[in-house]
Structure formats: structure tokens, C-alpha cells
Design goal:
25% strand, alpha/beta, 33% helix, globular, seven-stranded antiparallel β-sheet, Rossmann fold, 587 residues, binds 5-amino-5-deoxy-1-O-phosphono-D-mannitol
Length: 587
């Protein structure tokens, strides 16, 4: 949610272009407006734009030279997307400029404490700039303001009286600092450090710092200087190009095979070694926590762990669980699932899990989640740029499948060769009829609503398929367990509706088909996604029959591609769906 970057360079450079290049790497965090500020002849110059970063890029001038600046890409929370609401914001005396990620919960109260100050935006963030009332360029000014804030923040500020310092603050929103011989970068994601340096600092909650080319000084919230150590930047295989494909979402769906291979390697190289017999003996129950697609992956994980390892398991929506006042019994293990590792709703539950064993399942081993949990499993899907999760969701499901089989082996002293199932899956993974799926996408694209139905694991796949379709195509859609269809939901079905039945489990196949038929009798347009035979009157998405639970991945892959195609057919950009951000770092 919102991306932040700050740069200081040794030489004068076209600073706006440098900032925009970094900002583009953060665009996945929000893209409804963007802006930058830099020091130019002892004054702060600001440039802002509505919409994607390319709009800002068109406004900046390559002639504007400078050595220090800050920039921001926004995902609106308070105030609509507009130039006025875009960051950076200036202090009243125009000495300071700030960018902010997070939420100032008490912004109205703070605003009313500032008599005779003009606000030009509807945002909560502007109050941070306006509270900076001393012109002295010192971190104490920022610490003082932050101590008044209730809520979350990552802030980077510049002051026009000091062209060699970035002022940084952090609480519950990530921010990192990297220093190389000729530049310093402060950013809300380490992605901005690639090809720049080899290690970086991570600020923790209520830590602050003054960053300049020759020194970085860290402070706690009382203003006391503290010492911090650096983290090595993990070498990444990330390529930020579409490889001549039209969209990242398509590229990432096509990369799923690599993600599967990575998890096989991970398991073969003892990636699960910390989950050992002595740990398993302590587990009485497992609670999975996640949001959106990660929650859907967790539902599958909980079911598989009950099925194979016979450990009672439940999966919960992060934003609900934290307020549920659940009695957490001794012997509970928490599994937090989050591709970004920065989702605020998910991280908030870490507090409840204090004193329990916690396992993270993430695609970001530099994240807050990875640092906070007792054991972290790396799904190694490679960076996802498209906002809708595809390969990361698939890798989460696969990681939870191998976890369930690993726990089964440990608990029952068995030697189930589950990796051979995964290898078998690879053999059929690319047996996919894209042409047929394109035709089905055309059929789905003009329907007024799409209802996904399924039983057991197929219902969890239906939830994810429905989320994916509505995220990128905006067609109203929901998922319902097949058996529930007749308990009210059939009221939604008419000849403009499409019902997608998912049926991959032999014992449930005829049941789901009966429910499909109930929808068909009411005029519904039917698509069935299955490895089994069905009546010819229905459109069919074929799935290879691999006869084990990994069939989930084949269904997920097909329905992701369907969502992608429907989005493209309807003329949308699937990589940047409206009202969405990749990393949701506010509650
Ligand atoms: O980074 P996380 O896995 O914690 O993100 C959770 C959800 O915000 C995320 O899965 C969201 O639902 C995606 N847009 C799904 O495509």
C-alpha cells in the first residue's frame, strides 16, 4: 500500500528520473497517483500526478538536476485519488517535504490542534508535514511529531536547509535503508536495492534515522542514539520484464512450473528441516491465518493437514481472527500465510500468537513476517508484479501440501514419497488447452454474474477462482459450496448468469453435477472444470486426471488463466486492477 523512496547521490544527477525509476519498482504497491519532491537551488520543488507513474514521468524534466529527493506512489485510503491528495506534502513554512505510508488514526484531532494552518488535501498524511513547525533540520523534529501520531507510518522527509540528509521514521509499515559508495536509498521495499548494494538496514517499530552519504544515525523514540546491524540482501532471480508477453499476469501464470520445481528443490535441500519430530510432538492444533488468496490457500492447507497428519486445523481470515477473542489452547501452532509478508491484517495477529510456535509461509524472506516468526518457509515463487496473485498462490498451496505430508511422515513414522507426486504433476502441468480456454473466456466475458461452486477442496478453489475473476474483470462473482446452492443462492441464477462447477473428487462428482443441473434448469449457463466425463450440453474445462490432491494446482492454473483472458477481452489491464494494491500494509 503506497510505495516510498528517498535518494541522496554524491553527484548532481537528473534526480526526478532517478526517483521515478525507483518508484516504478514500487508501483505494485499502489498506482492511483504519485509524486516527488527534490531540492533545487535551496528550494523544495514538488511534482505530482494522478494515475499511473507514467503520468508523473511525462511531467518531470530531465533538466532538473539535484542530489536529494523523495517520491511516493499512492493507494488511496483517506481522500480520493487526485493531484491534491498525492504526496509529498509540505510543511506550512515550506521547509519540509514528507512522504508517508500508513494511517494517521488521530489525524482529525491533530489537525484541529493546528490553528491557522491551511490544508490543501483530504488526506490523513498532510498533518504530518504541517506538524513539522520547526525549520531546524533535525530528526528530533520528526520524532516529536511521530510521538503524537496514533496509527502506522513509514515516513521519509527532506528539509531545504540540509541537502545531505533524509529523515526517516517507522511504525508498523516497512522501511529499509541502503548505503553504497555514491548513493543512499531509503525505500519501503528492498526491491529498490537490487543492483545497488549488498546489504541494508531494517528499521523496527518506533525507530528513526538520519541518513546521509557518509553516515547513518539511528534513534529510538526518546531521541537516544541506538546501534543497528545490517542484513545481507538475498540474491534475487527477479526479472522485471514481461519477456515479450503482453502482461505480467500471463507471464506469472506461465512461470508456475518453475515455482513448483523450486519447491521440490527446497524440500530436497532440507527446507523443512526445522519442522522436526520434537516440534510435531508439541502440536495439538494448527491455526492458519491469511487474507484474500493467502486465506484461500490456508483453507486448503488446514484441510490437508487434517486429512494426512490428523492434526486438528482451522483457517481464519486475519482481520476477523484478531478480534474474535478465541481461546488459544497450549500446543497451538500458528501458520501465517502472506506472499508479501507485509500484510497489516495478518501481521496484527502475531501479537495474539506471542508465546506460541509460529510458522510463516511467504514469498519475501526480507519481510516483517519472516523476521517475526519462529520458522519461515520460503515459497520461492519469484517476485510477482501483477497485483492479482497467481504463481504465489499456487506455490503457497503446494508448500502447504508438502507441509501436510511432511507432518504425516513425522507423526506416523511413515515414508510417503510425496515429492514423487509433485514430480508427476510436473509431467502434466503444461497439458493445457489455451485455445479452448480462450473460447470459454469469450463465453464468460458477457455474463452478468459468475457463480463458482464446488465441494470440499473444490469449494476452496471456487473461492479463489471467484476472487481472481472479480479482481481483474470486475464481473460480479461469488463462490458457494455446491450443496448450499439450493438454500437460497439459486435465486441469483437466470439466463445471464454463468455457473462454473468445479469437480475433481470422484466421490463427490455426481453430487456436484446434480447441483450444476439445478442451476442449468433455471437457465444458468454452465461451465464444468473437471477431469471426469460430463454431459455434452455443458462447456468443459479439461483437467488431467492425476488422482491426488495436487489436482488443485491444475484447476487453479486454468481458472487463473480464464480470469486473465476475461479481463483482456473486456479491455482491462489485468496487471493493475482498479482499487487494489499488491501489498496491503494498512488495516
Ligand atoms: O501479501 P499477502 O499474501 O498477505 O496478500 C493477501 C491478499 O491481500 C492477497 O492475496 C490479495 O487477495 C490478492 N490481490 C489476491 O490476488
Amino acid at each position: 500500500m503506497c510505495g516510498i523512496v528517498g535518494i541522496i547521490t554524491k553527484k548532481q544527477v537528473p534526480i526526478c528520473s532517478s526517483l521515478v525509476q525507483k518508484l516504478k519498482l514500487l508501483e505494485y504497491r499502489g498506482y492511483d497517483s504519485s509524486g516527488l519532491a527534490f531540492l533545487n537551488k535551496k528550494n523544495i520543488k514538488v511534482c505530482k500526478s494522478k494515475g499511473e507513474i507514467k503520468n508523473l514521468e511525462q511531467k518531470i524534466s530531465a533538466k532538473d538536476m539535484g542530489n536529494i529527493g523523495i517520491a511516493h506512489t499512492r493507494w488511496a485510503t483517506h481522500g480520493k485519488p487526485s493531484v491534491l491528495n498525492a504526496h509529498p506534502f509540505l510543511s506550512d513554512d515550506k521547509n519540509w517535504a514528507i512522504v508517508h505510508n500508513g494511517i494517521v488514526e488521530n489525524y482529525l484531532e491533530l489537525k484541529s490542534s493546528l490553528a491557522n494552518v491551511n490544508f490543501c488535501s483530504q488526506t490523513d498524511s498532510e498533518v504530518i508535514a504541517k506538524l513539522l513547525q520547526t525549520n531546524a533540520p533535525h530528526i528530533l523534529a520528526l520524532i516529536d511529531v511521530c510521538n503524537k501520531i496514533k496509527g502506522s507510518f513509514a515516513i521519509v522527509a527532506i528539509n531545504k536547509l540540509d541537502n545531505n540528509t533524509l529523515f526517516v521514521a517507522k511504525r508498523k509499515s516497512p522501511i529499509y535503508v541502503m548505503q553504497s559508495s555514491d548513493e543512499v536509498i531509503v525505500a519501503s521495499d528492498t526491491i529498490c536495492f537490487e543492483n545497488t548494494g549488498k546489504d541494508y538496514y531494517t528499521l523496527l517499530d518506533d525507530e528513526f534515522c538520519e541518513v546521509s552519504l557518509d553516515k547513518i544515525i539511528f534513534y529510538d523514540k526518546t531521541g537516544k542514539v541506538i546501534k543497528k546491524s545490517k542484513t545481507l540482501l538475498k540474491k534475487s532471480q527477479n526479472k522485471f520484464s514481461k519477456d515479450n508477453l503482453p502482461h505480467f499476469m500471463l507471464k506469472e501464470i506461465l512461470e508456475e512450473k518453475v515455482a513448483i520445481k523450486n519447491i521440490i528443490d527446497y524440500c530436497q535441500n532440507n527446507g523443512l528441516k526445522k519442522i522436526n519430530k520434537s516440534l510435531v510432538r508439541k502440536i495439538k492444533q494448527i491455526i492458519f491465518i491469511g487474507c484474500g488468496s493467502a486465506y484461500h490457500a490456508g483453507l486448503i492447507g488446514a484441510k490437508l493437514i487434517e486429512r494426512y497428519a490428523k492434526i486438528p486445523s482451522t483457517c481464519h481470515i486475519a482481520s476477523e481472527f484478531r478480534y474474535a477473542e478465541t481461546d488459544i489452547k497450549p500446543g497451538t501452532v500458528f501458520v501465517f500465510i502472506s506472499q508479501s509478508g507485509e500484510t497489516a491484517d495478518t501481521l496484527a495477529n502475531l501479537e495474539l500468537a506471542k508465546g506460541f510456535i509460529t510458522i510463516g509461509v511467504t514469498n519475501n524472506m526480507h519481510s516483517t513476517l519472516s523476521r517475526a516468526v519462529s520458522i519461515c518457509l520460503d515459497i520461492m515463487a519469484g517476485k510477482e508484479i501483477a497485483v492479482a496473485s497467481t504463481k504465489a498462490y499456487l506455490a503457497q498451496v503446494l508448500m502447504l501440501y508438502v507441509l501436510s505430508r511432511h507432518l504425516q511422515n513425522l507423526k506416523f513414522n511413515t515414508k510417503v514419497d510425496y515429492l514423487s507426486h509433485v514430480l508427476d504433476l510436473l509431467n502434466v502441468f503444461e497439458d493445457i488447452d489455451f485455445k479452448k480456454l480462450d473460447d470459454i473466456a469469450k463465453f464468460v466475458a458477457n455474463k452478468s454474474e459468475v457463480i463458482f461452486i464446488g465441494r470440499d477442496l473444490d469449494y476452496y478453489l471456487a473461492l479463489e477462482a471467484s476472487l481472481k475473476l472479480k479482481e481483474v474483470s470486475y464481473i460480479p462473482s461469488f463462490a458457494v459450496p455446491s450443496g448450499e446452492l439450493k438454500h437460497g443462492y439459486l435465486a441469483q441464477v437466470d439466463n445471464r448468469t454463468c455457473v462454473v462447477g468445479i469437480t475433481t473428487q470422484k466421490n463427490l462428482h455426481s453430487k456436484t453435477l446434480s447441483n450444476v443441473s439445478e442451476a442449468h434448469s433455471r437457465g444458468g449457463n454452465i461451465v464444468v472444470c473437471s477431469p471426469f466425463d460430463i454431459e455434452q450440453k455443458y462447456l468443459k474445462i479439461d483437467v488431467p486426471n492425476i488422482d491426488n490432491d495436487l489436482i488443485c494446482l491444475l484447476v487453479a492454473q486454468r481458472l487463473q488463466y480464464l480470469a486473465y483472458r476475461v479481463s483482456v477481452i473486456k479491455g482491462f489491464n489485468p496487471d493493475k486492477p482498479r482499487n487494489l494494491a499488491k501489498s496491503v500494509t494498512v488495516e
